[in-house]
């Protein structure tokens, strides 16, 4: 098997000052809520959304990875399509957008990942990417019979994982590898991929996690400690300087955000309150926090309440709530603070993308942050 066609330009390398992506459509969305508008995953919906995002010139279509639900057996948070199978399908129905498979490096072996990612790369003509997660949910580790490692050990394993993956991706001769976490004999990856290397994303927030992203990844996500763009700029500058000074690398710094766009700010706030507060899935979020944040009981009530609200709103993302003008203005302020990209979720993805296209994207183009879709 070979790919004789030239690689298509990966949109994550385009000239847009502010890049945009869509997250989590391979499952039932990012919001923990019982609101009737919550996204229900289907393949047909994924095809429609991917093609819309592609047509609008968005840069990335990113999956979430989940092996066990947060709210118990049968809970909607566990209904996620496997990310490489999903990516191959999305790649086949799109033309330009980068297709990103999220995976847990503690659970998915690099030999398998290299072949799966190369397959997506061939299907897409060079648009495959990986969102690397080091694994933190004990129930998922138990499912695979894998012991949850200490924080530093997870990133040490991830360093080995990336080393092996890179050698498999670029090398043409078999190799042996003896590490603390992996032992490989005759490692080789065929068929050969299209890209020199797929885009790596990572959202490590600790100093060790940031070091991993700075050394190995192309896109690093920050979780702002304060929503004020001045504070965001401090985080972005520190992250980018660390990668440059310690590892000699230039990285993109992104954020995730949940988007609630309406014709008036009051309508947007009311809608957010309805799905987050009035119909939020409190038991699932309480379980998530209790089981996965070791020091949760010691945190002040206000911090727990803020964390719970953010998870119910959309996986803890940054709030982009208001009119098209409000949202475009906040995005422009984040871009001025140095943010390179925003990965977006909505309660209703199809309605959200339609509103984005009609009201926000033209404003971002007018501000010089993005080229029109046909020039992206």
UniProtKB/TrEMBL annotation:
| One Pfam family recorded for the sequence | Bac_luciferase
Q: Does the keyword Flavoprotein apply?
A: yes
Q: Which residues form the Luciferase-like domain?
A: 20-340
Q: Which UniProt keywords apply?
A: Flavoprotein, FMN, Monooxygenase, Oxidoreductase
Q: Does the keyword Repressor apply?
A: no
The superkingdom of the source organism is: Bacteria
Instruction: Cite the GO molecular-function annotations of the record.
Output: monooxygenase activity; oxidoreductase activity, acting on paired donors, with incorporation or reduction of molecular oxygen
PANTHER family reported in the protein's UniProt record: ALKANESULFONATE MONOOXYGENASE, ALKANESULFONATE MONOOXYGENASE-RELATED
Name under which the protein is recorded: Luciferase family protein
The opening ranks of the lineage are:
Bacteria, Pseudomonadati, Pseudomonadota, Alphaproteobacteria, Sphingomonadales
């Amino acid at each position: 098997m070979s790919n004789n066609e030239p690689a298509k330009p990966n949109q994550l390398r385009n000239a847009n000052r502010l890049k945009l992506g869509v997250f989590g459509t391979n499952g039932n969305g990012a919001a923990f809520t019982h609101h009737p508008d919550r996204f229900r995953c289907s393949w047909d919906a994924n095809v429609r959304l991917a093609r819309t995002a592609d047509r609008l010139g968005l840069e990335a279509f990113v999956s979430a990875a989940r092996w066990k639900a947060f709210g118990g057996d049968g809970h909607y948070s566990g209904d996620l399509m496997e990310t490489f199978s999903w990516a191959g399908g999305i790649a086949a129905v799109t033309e330009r957008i980068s297709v990103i498979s999220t995976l847990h490096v503690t659970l998915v072996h690099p030999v398998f990942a290299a072949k799966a990612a190369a397959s997506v790369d061939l299907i897409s003509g060079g648009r495959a990417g990986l969102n690397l997660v080091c694994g933190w949910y004990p129930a998922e580790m138990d499912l695979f019979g894998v012991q949850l490692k200490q924080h530093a050990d997870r990133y040490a394993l991830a360093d080995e994982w990336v080393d092996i993956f890179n050698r498999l991706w670029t090398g043409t001769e078999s190799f042996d590898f003896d590490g603390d976490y992996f032992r490989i004999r005759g490692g080789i990856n065929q068929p050969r991929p299209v890209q020199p290397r797929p885009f790596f994303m990572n959202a490590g927030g600790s100093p060790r996690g940031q070091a991993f992203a700075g050394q190995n990844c192309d896109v690093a996500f920050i979780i702002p400690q304060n929503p004020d763009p001045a504070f965001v700029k401090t985080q972005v500058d520190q992250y980018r300087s660390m990668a440059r000074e310690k590892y000699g690398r230039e990285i993109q710094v992104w954020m995730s955000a949940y988007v609630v766009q309406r014709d008036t700010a009051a309508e947007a706030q009311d809608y957010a309150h309805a799905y987050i507060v009035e119909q939020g899935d409190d038991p699932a979020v309480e379980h998530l926090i209790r089981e996965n944040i070791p020091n949760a009981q010691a945190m002040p009530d206000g911090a727990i309440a803020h964390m719970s609200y953010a998870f119910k709103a959309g996986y803890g993302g940054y709030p982009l709530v208001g009119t098209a003008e409000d949202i475009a203005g906040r995005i422009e302020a984040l871009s001025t603070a140095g943010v390179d990209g925003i990965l977006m979720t909505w309660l209703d993805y199809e309605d959200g993308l339609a509103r984005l296209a009609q009201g926000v994207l033209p404003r971002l183009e007018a501000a010089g942050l993005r080229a029109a879709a046909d020039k992206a």
